[in-house]
Design a protein that fits this description.
heterotrimer, A alpha/beta (about 425), B alpha+beta (about 70), C mainly alpha (about 190), A: about 425 residues, alpha/beta, Rossmann fold, Ubiquitin-like (UB roll), de novo design (two linked rop proteins), 3 domains, five-stranded mixed beta sheet, 17 helices, 9 strands, B: about 70 residues, alpha+beta, Alpha-Beta Plaits, two-stranded antiparallel ribbon
Chain lengths: ~425, ~70, ~190
Amino acid sequence: MTQAPSVTWPRRLLASVGADDDQYAVHLDTWGALPDVSGAAIVEAVEASGLLGRGGAGFPTGRKMRTVAAGASRRPVVVANGAEGEPASGKDVLLLGRAPHLVLDGIQLAARAIGADEAHLAIHRGSPVAGVVRAALARRTATDTVRLRLHEIPSRYVASEESALVHYLNGGEAKPTFTPPRPFEQGVARRPTLVNNVETLAHVGVIARRGAKWFREVGDADEPGTLLVTVSADGVTRRVAEVPTGTTIGAVADRAEVGRDGATAVLVGGYFGSWLPAAYAWQLPLTHRAMRSAGAALGAGVVAILPPASCGVAETARVLGYLAAHNAGQCGPCLNGLPAIADALRRLASGAWDERWWPALERWLAVVPGRGACRHPDGAVRFASTALSVFAEDIASHRSGRPCPAASSSAWLPVPRPPDGWR
Amino acid sequence: MTMRIRVNPIACEAHGVCAEVLPEWIELDEWGYPILDGEELPAQLLAHARRAAKACPTLAIVLSGE
Amino acid sequence: MTGFSSAPLWYSTRSTAIVAFVLLTASMFLGIAATQRALASRHWPRFATQDLHRNVSLLALGFMLAHIVTTLLDTFVYVGWWSMAVPGTSPYRRLWVSLGTIAFDVILVVILTSLVRHRLPLKLWRAVHFSVYAVWPLAFVHFLETGTDAAHGRFGLWLDIGAMLALVVAVAIRVATTNEPIGPLRSVAGRSR
């Protein structure tokens, strides 16, 4: 198949990512000072831009801002979610570590847009970017009007879920809560709270300067702009690329200079996302729309290409083990179902398989989704179900007691253990 | 009057009283947790649904839409 | 009110007291039974125990009221209408009657809060409800000290011993009930991990 004509890859969010010396100066050079636009103008621009949230849900950011601002009989609050819980994603850490001022600008502008007087930024405890962010904040004391508090939250998978984050900020554990009410109605201190991913806020930062029309010049017509994608493959760990929305997965792989030969499967979205057959994935555009009709989701912009030497079944089992270990222990179907599913997949991967487990596995995959307080079990089941479909041939071998030779040594996707505690 | 019944999965401790009171609508999974249909409740089950909400030891059954 | 006493009133106040006390004890037992997962079956679901507990409690309240009213109507011993609600106002056996008053007041609050339980925060309802464990001993002592029957005779003795035993057993069961749902990792073969 002929290669598509080479595209000019836009550098927007990653434009100010340069050398490590004086990020603030580089930022001001590239983007200029914080623009002097009104809150109303910001909301209008963000709405007109068609920016969708980059944290996974893909909700229209402008609409979210309007809703939060409108619901305010109490002063709203901005929460920037930089706690990148997805192990296969590296874009938030990159942004915060190499272009923090874009994010910090976005926070100030979002606060202005909704009339907030308080903002919070959450990162993971022990994150390498903590120092950089603090230093960046220190440079901005003269320009930032809204007080920002930096929080280091436990580095657990579900801790960065919207309601978990808000619960933590309210003094509770970083565990999801029962909704409604959602944070946009009642969040931090019961005030309407705008929770946005840091990449989304960085886009707000550039839209407020260059306008909606500029933003729409690149990318898909209905879901415009650029997107940060984290690509992983054989020998490639979390390489972040900025691409226009609508770029095909294949083109993204090329952009990230990652080989496609011999790849059979691609994981899209994250550990709560979907496996897709590689041949099918290469021509899929990265838009929420296209992903949905493929039975997948854009998620956190993860594109992980299974190395030919790895065993998809084993990787799936390892990730389910991770997801099971990272549940909040609050909801029966999840805290019972995920370990059961993980257990079954582990047996399948290792070859210590008993066919009696198969109907149980199918039953669990059917009965667990939609019954937790958050989408954690849903994501885990989607990951597992799509794996069963994409790796069907391998699974048939594993079921007949012939696991692939790679199974026992396959350890490609990162599966960090949860830390102690939820505070 | 359209009413829907949900369970707060965090408050739920799998006592199963809801399934006793409203077996027409609530089933228990193998771990004892309720499986509920999110659709509108038929009129003849409304009174039982209210009773199920009152009977839950942890008040995990939530009715909405009255 | 001119003196009004009669044997029927006195017997009524004693008999309603005994029934109220027995029902109160039974209600506590049933309340604890209602928390036990192990007692639920297809033929006797938990909501049946819950309902029984509720009805016995209401009945107990009824008998308590009857006991109080017959006591207050009987002027052979003057207790005073205030002592129905306010402890320490009875000229007759002030301390022991006060215990009864307190017990009644608290039980009334427990029952009222339970009638609107689903509208209250669960923690509040629980805190109020658990106060019956403190109240039962008060009722028991009131029964012993003011009652004619509790302290005298075989019937009284068996009643007292029975009631105390019942409560000790009930509280022990309640304390031992962790009430955890079935844990994770039930394997396919049904063995729990």
